[in-house]
Amino acid sequence: MAEIRNRIIEKIEEKNFIKEYNEICKKHKTFKVEINKNWEIKTWDDYIRVIEKEFKFPKSCEGSKEKYLEYMKDLNWLDYEAYVLVIKRYESFLFNPEMELYYEQYEVVTQFIDNILPYWEYEVLEKENGKPKLFCVYLIDTPWRESRLLHKCCVYINREKDKYSLTFDNDTAHTIRSEILELTYHKNNDCSDEEVEVFVEEYFKEGKYKKFLKGIK
């Protein structure tokens, strides 16, 4: 297998990622972080909060992009030779459904390409005792069937919202959608569109959404 260098790998299948990750682990003491496993990253602030927690930042970035870059080009509190960041369900990562924009997604990727990856590959050598480290970012798309069910789930939820005259804020809608998918598709990968539709109807009929009342106007 060819030597793996610092890079972003787009739209890689899970099985191919696992194969490459195993190769990295054979050669390096590796620190891996997986994010957006449950569509939890919708805004820049979401991203910062998750990254500073998973990479164990000494202090909060307080939303600052400058502090974020500073910490990502430090990591001296972590004793590893290689870093692997996996962004799952990349097609929904930092996507603004109201504006249909991927600006923040593009900005995060650009920061890696222009700043973080080059730093760890060769710019770190300019620092006293600086040592290059492997840093790879994997962008993994949602499997086609799960993506389709996600779309269907949104349609069914919107229909039930209208039926019961409900208005959710964005966070509550996201939480309900994630829970429904967790209770249907993630427990049974063979569930059909019809089964998800029936589950959504029962979910609202039984008032299970009410535990998220804080997000309902």
Whole-number mean pLDDT: 84
N-to-C SSE string, H for helix and E for strand: EHEHHEHEHHH
Task: Summarize the amount of helix as a percent range.
Answer: 40-55%
Coarse shape: elongated
Number of strands: 4
Structural Rg: 20 Å
User: How widely separated are the two ends?
Assistant: 55 Å
Largest sheet: 4 strands, parallel
Note the beta-strand portion: 5-15%
Q: Any idea how many domains? A: 2
Number of helices: 7
- Widest beta sheet: strand line-up: 1-4-3-2
Low-confidence stretches: none
Return the structural class: alpha/beta
In short:
About 45% of the residues lie in helices and about 10% in strands. It is α/β, with parallel strands linked by helices and about 220 residues long.
Could you list some keywords that capture this structure?
2 domains; four-stranded parallel sheet; 7 helices; alpha/beta; 217 residues; single chain
Structural account:
Helix 4 (103-121) links the parallel strand 3 (82-88) and strand 4 (134-140). The protein has 7 helices and 4 strands. The chain starts with 6 loop residues before the first strand and ends in a 12-residue tail after the last helix. Helix content is 46%, strand content 11%. The protein has 2 domains: 7-140, no CATH class; 144-215. It has 217 residues and is an alpha/beta fold. It has a 4-stranded parallel β-sheet with strand order 1-4-3-2, sandwiched between helices.
